[in-house]
Amino acid sequence: PSLPCRGRPCELVMAASKPVEAAGSGGGGGGSGLSRWQLALVLGAPILLGAGALYLWGRRAARRGGKGANERKTPEGRASPGPCGSGQPDGPGHEETSPLDRAQAAKNKGNKYFKAGKYEQAIECYTEAISLCPPEKNLDLSTFYQNRAAAYEQLQNWTEVAQDCTKAVELNPKYVKALFRRAKAHEKLDNKKECLEDVTAVCILEAFQNQQSMLLADKVLKLLGKEKAKEKYKNREPLMPSPQFIKSYFSSFTDDIISQPLLKGEKSDEDKDKEGEASEVKENSGYLRAKQYMEEENYDKIISESTKEIEAKGKYMAEALLLRATFYLLIGNANAAKPDLDQVISMEDANVKLRANALIKRGSMFMQQQQPVLSTQDFNMAADIDPQNADVYHHRGQLKILLDQIEEAVEDFDECIRLRPDSALAQAQKCFALYRQAYTGNNPLPVQVAMKGFEDVIKKFPKCAEGYALYAQALTDQQQFGKADEMYDKCIDLEPDNATTYVHKGLLQLQWKQDLDKGLELISKAIEIDNKCDFAYETMGTIEVQRGNLDKAIEMFNKAINLAKSEMEMAHLYSLCDAAYAQTEVAKKYGLKPPTL
């Protein structure tokens, strides 16, 4: 449920390239929003990005109808009516029962007690079966342990469940019922890592055909990801993004005073000569020095210079607060950004465009944090206080796409275009909104109209890379791979330093020609252009999982984790990494590997 962003990094667009919970979920995991890996299946992509990438290759089979949710609840065994210890022979010619026969009879009696809900008596019978069974009868003995675990499960004795399942798996390492039952016990005991390893083994053994195990895998991956990201993000070192990323970020605003060239909007004479500008900087204004550092792309000094202006309560205090907040957001420090944004928003005597811009950025931050209600409130307030600000409608339109409110998104893009007819970005994103609405509605005629709209946009705005990029993604959906490739080439011609375009073009080679070498070559080129492009590392890691190169995949995911710009993004990446790591453990323990590309 996201705007397929090629890396234009306003906060909202950054959020758009990651999984977003449905509106109203409050980030609690109860929403109906699709993870990116599920969305990729809906769109038919062969390289599937998102939490649980390990499991994706078989997801279609599961969606076609896997085994039911009531699997594995009953104990195993023949429906033999012989009571425990009856000594009844199996047939003519037997003068006495063997130890295994007596064990089977005890188990059968246990099954009767189990079905009657008499779990303590069932446990006694299964225990007798275990004691009677010859030790060399591995498969029978593993069944008796697994059945006793099933009875313990009904009594919610989770430690005993895990112990008995472990014995069953030791005797029969590919025993799906025992592995899955142990996974559920580990979940109850909050042993997430062990749970993930067991359910990973189950998914592989069942060829990803059972929805119950798939859902447990997805659930525990998300929990692990959130848990690890919370700790890591709290202690992370702030990291300034690449200059390309920062410039791309500011290009998504047109009414942002702080991103304008030095002194524009701050003095009535915007054509002041260089000598005049230099004299202004000598006023000892931290803000003006910060602006000069921006022009020089010396971004590391901006927060400290803005802080000097704020502490001095200087002439440009509101601007300095907004500039500092913006760079806090860029380095992924939302907690530091929020008080500055709050202060600017509350300054009723400040320039209304500063306040509206602060509301846009705070609203985008809230959306990243999966708080869509607060996000919507901020965008609506921005529209109320500065109704002629095109940026408000442009960024709110992206929010509406994320919330699947396509008609409202189109209205916002239309208003942005009315205010700024030359806004190529808004026109391209409006086309995408209309395309997405038509595509998900499975209606060929509106899809054709939307595709024609893309053609019109790139004809009218031939220098707008975003138009070609969004059109390329729509063409890929329509299996028009050759033309999509041409559109990505246009993007590269216009923005040769945009790393994410190379990533998308690389993914296209995999889907179109199954050309792994070319795909990886393009993604490596993206990293060469921008070694802080987390999307490139994430994508390469996902491909390496699909190829079975798990150690390399884990290395790539860890690099992406260190570059993550939000806790939500970091949680998503940890889920990918944990999925790959679980697969390495399963391969070591059981020799199990899913098919590779």
UniProtKB/TrEMBL annotation:
**InterPro entries reported for this sequence:** TPR-like_helical_dom_sf, TPR_rpt
Q: Which residues form the signal peptide?
A: none
Q: Could you tell me the keywords of this UniProt record?
A: Acetylation, Isopeptide bond, Membrane, Methylation, Mitochondrion, Mitochondrion outer membrane, Phosphoprotein, Repeat, TPR repeat, Transmembrane, Transmembrane helix, Ubl conjugation
Q: What GO CC terms are in its UniProt record?
A: mitochondrial outer membrane
TPR-type repeats, residues: 103-136, 390-423, 465-498, 534-567
Family matches, as Pfam families: TPR_1, TPR_8
- Compartment(s) where it occurs, according to its Swiss-Prot or TrEMBL record: Mitochondrion outer membrane
Region annotation Disordered: residue ranges? 65-99
Cite the GO molecular-function annotations of the record: mitochondrion targeting sequence binding; protein transmembrane transporter activity
Keyword Cell wall biogenesis/degradation in annotation: no
Which Gene Ontology terms describe the biological processes this protein takes part in?
protein import into mitochondrial matrix; protein insertion into mitochondrial inner membrane
Its membrane topology is listed as: Single-pass membrane protein
**Tree of life domain:** Eukaryota
Similarity comment text for this entry: Belongs to the Tom70 family.
What is the protein's name according to its record?
Mitochondrial import receptor subunit TOM70
Organism this protein belongs to: Tricholaema leucomelas (pied barbet)
**Taxonomic placement:** Eukaryota, Metazoa, Chordata, Craniata, Vertebrata
Q: Which gene encodes it?
A: Tomm70
